[in-house]
Amino acid sequence: MKKLYIFLVVSFALNIAKGQQWTTYTINNGLVWNWVDAIAIDKQNIKWFGTEIGLSRFDGTIWTNYTTQNGLPGDVVRSIAVDSLNNKWFGTEDGYGMNCKISKFDGITWTIFSPSFLINNSVWAIAIDQLNNKWFGTTSGVLMYDDANWTIYTTSNGLVNNSVTAVAIDSQGNKWFGTDGGLSMFDGTNWINYTIVNGSDFNFIISIAVDQIGNKWFGTHTRGLYKFDGTNWTHYLYENNVSSIAIDSQNNKWIGTGNGVFKFKDTTWTNYTTSDGLVDNNVYALSIDSLNIKWFGTYGGLSEFNDNPLNYVGNIRPNKNFLVFPNPAIDKITVELSCGLKESNLAIVDIEGQQLIMRQITEPKTQLDISMLPSGVYFVRVMGERTVSIGKFIKQ
User: Would you list the domain boundaries of the chain?
Assistant: First the structure.
């Protein structure tokens, strides 16, 4: 029987200041290894962390670690993505381009793909398009898999360089490939390549993200961050190594670098480092979950950062303590508590952290009138004696 290595989270480091909370995870409390290369968050808000020595799954309470002893085809996990069916896709290897494979995990079964193209060919990035096609950036070009056939794209097809280190897909379905020799955009028929931007070389691109208004953000190796609005290029963070980029629900940009994490809000930059609570200043992977909590993978472990200004107290737990229904809602919601949360304080909070409705509750079920709220995403915060639980609902 295959063994799974399961750990309970028994300790964590907290730094609560100005409504912000940092939590650190290392091999000492569940993470399989401290060097985190990749992060993905699935449709159940479960986090998946790829490291140099295996894969970790974290549901908010329990860690489950996977290595080659229990299904993972290679212990070095370079890339992760989640498809529309909640399958997890991994690019793995034994290290330094050896025994490279692509695998799919449905939660029970591992399916391993090893097309001949992948021999000694690392998979550095994965993205999944609106048709559920998988796009893999490798050291020898791009692989596309439509669940039946594999298609290869290289410089002979129009790709600017075969060493592909980043992949992203915009709302129009255009594919953007960052390479060791510039940037390529592929609309399904035509290729557009960029190698010179604002008069300077624009060659080694290692991260890409698309924001809520369609701007593309490109992180480079040692040359900082670029924004492209479709016409104009803007350069930020000169001489920084920008390994990861993510966009939160308020369209703030989070940038992982060798000098910590930068947050870019409108025109304001904020830098977070180990002095603030980050476990290590070399931030290689970055992702944001459905509660807008940030996860930073570093060379020294994992940092969870909750900057939501809800001023939580006590232990924050995933929402397993109450139900909110209907969801989406129109005029009213019902909050049904577990038996352990009687005599709790309840608040409805918007994404800016403003408390809109507050209620002390003593019954298992409470109905709230939300007809006065504008359409949008809201949070339900239930504060018990020792815990705070957060749920989310949509007002139509």
Answer: 5-306, 317-395
Q: Do residues 123 and 117 touch, judged by C-beta distance below 8 A?
A: no
Strand partners of residue 39:
49
In the numeric block, the tokens 């300790």 are attached to: 11
Mean pLDDT per segment of 10 residues, for the chain of length 396 residues? Answer: 40 41 94 98 95 95 94 96 97 91 96 90 97 97 97 98 98 97 98 90 94 97 95 94 95 97 96 97 95 94 83 46 87 82 76 78 88 88 73 87
The fold adopted by the segment(s) 317-395 is Immunoglobulin-like (2.60.40)
Same fold across 5-306 and 317-395:
no
First to last CA, the chain: 48
Q: Which of the listed CATH numbers 2.130.10.10, 3.40.1000.70, 1.20.1300.10, 1.10.3720.10 matches domain 5-306? A: 2.130.10.10
**Tokens of residue 276, six digits:** 């603030």
| 230 contact partners, CB below 8 Å, separation of at least 6 | 214
